[in-house]
Automatic annotation (TrEMBL):
<dbReference type="Pfam" id="PF00126">
    <property type="entry name" value="HTH_1"/>
</dbReference>
<keyword id="KW-0238">DNA-binding</keyword>
<dbReference type="InterPro" id="IPR005119">
    <property type="entry name" value="LysR_subst-bd"/>
</dbReference>
<dbReference type="InterPro" id="IPR036390">
    <property type="entry name" value="WH_DNA-bd_sf"/>
</dbReference>
<keyword id="KW-0804">Transcription</keyword>
<dbReference type="InterPro" id="IPR000847">
    <property type="entry name" value="LysR_HTH_N"/>
</dbReference>
<dbReference type="Pfam" id="PF03466">
    <property type="entry name" value="LysR_substrate"/>
</dbReference>
<feature type="domain" description="HTH lysR-type">
    <location>
        <begin position="14"/>
        <end position="71"/>
    </location>
</feature>
<keyword id="KW-0805">Transcription regulation</keyword>
<dbReference type="InterPro" id="IPR036388">
    <property type="entry name" value="WH-like_DNA-bd_sf"/>
</dbReference>
<protein>
    <recommendedName>
        <fullName>Probable hydrogen peroxide-inducible genes activator</fullName>
    </recommendedName>
</protein>
<keyword id="KW-0010">Activator</keyword>
<comment type="similarity">
    <text>Belongs to the LysR transcriptional regulatory family.</text>
</comment>
Length: 319
């Protein structure tokens, strides 16, 4: 392919639409999937990528009847294109934040062990205090949320901390204790002084791999002296299923206090027990990109959310 420069003219500047089209193809290596992702017709997408190749004077893709591959030049340009698009996104976000706080879109990511129990309060706060804010909620596991935050797909996260992730700022909201949930008539039911050591030999039911609550529960068990070889008999995809397994007599589990009422109120085959002080606990926080354009706005939102959550059985953390 002859470059524009070799034809005696100056290279044309690629457009953002061309870069966006090429970045989508580079990610999916499939024109139809890329076109669907960015809401462009497949012919328009193909034309935009061809126009970008012509503007830059290099072949970016190797096209066959069965698949699409990045050329060596395409791999290098794809990385640059993503960086340019992220920078433009930051520019638009900063401009939007400068116009007026608590307006426009706020993409909030929430972990599954928080979403059902805190979202009612979050939604009421937004409805009452920030009516011009377009809140979009995404429920995902922690690793996916952090990836979305790093790549600009999400603006703010509501999850358990500490995360220990560079370039992420945590805004603590509250601490909450874990409660033992067991089958009815279990010997630990109704107690308010359960020692952590009791966890050493219990048949423990946990969430599936990938849930931070599973890791927190295992950490608590290790601190209590539970042998890591002691098996976890069953795991579940969500807390509701976990509680039903407990009610069926398969073992016991640990629930955060904010989930207790919702998950146990509908089943009379359960009993609960509370740990002796200091009880095992977790901290819930908002998390944002360090130096985010909307940092001041997010800090105000965290402060307002602490007030909205004061009715929960938790210990608030000062901002």
């Amino acid at each position: 392919m002859a470059s524009p420069a070799s034809q005696g003219g100056r290279p044309r500047q690629p457009s953002l639409a061309q870069l966006r089209a090429f970045a989508a193809v580079a990610e999916h290596l499939h024109f139809r999937e890329a076109a669907s992702e960015i809401g462009m017709s497949q012919p328009a997408l193909s034309g935009a990528v061809s126009a970008l190749e012509e503007a830059l004077g290099v072949q970016l893709l190797e096209r066959t009847t069965r698949k699409v591959l990045l050329s060596p030049a395409g791999e290098r340009v794809a990385a640059r294109a993503r960086a340019v698009l992220e920078a433009v996104g930051d520019l638009m976000e900063e401009a939007e934040a400068a116009r007026a706080p608590f307006t426009g879109v706020l993409r909030l990511g929430v972990i599954p062990t928080v979403a059902p129990y805190l979202l009612p309060a979050v939604l009421r706060l937004v409805h009452d205090a920030y009516p011009d804010l377009d809140l979009q909620v995404h429920e995902e596991q922690t690793a996916s949320l952090l990836d979305g935050l790093a790549h600009g797909r999400l603006d703010l996260l509501l999850l358990a901390v500490p995360l220990g992730v560079p370039q992420v700022t945590e805004l603590p909201l509250f601490d909450e204790d874990f409660v033992l949930v067991a089958p009815k008539e279990h010997w630990l039911g109704g107690r308010g002084d359960i020692p952590r050591q009791a966890l050493r030999e219990l048949d423990l039911l946990l969430l599936d791999e990938g849930h931070c609550l599973r890791d927190q529960a295992l950490d608590i068990c290790r601190e209590a002296g539970r042998d890591e070889k002691t098996p976890v008999t069953t795991s579940a995809a969500g807390l509701s299923t976990l509680v039903q397994l407990v009610a069926g007599g398969l073992g016991v589990t640990l629930l955060p206090r904010t989930a207790l009422r919702v998950e146990t109120a509908r089943n009379d085959q359960l009993t609960t027990g509370y740990f002796a002080d200091p009880a095992p606990s977790r901290r819930i926080a908002l998390a944002m990109r360090a130096g985010a354009a909307r940092q001041e706005e997010f800090e105000q939102f965290a402060q307002a959310l602490r007030g909205a959550l004061r009715g929960l059985p938790v210990r608030m953390v000062k901002g």
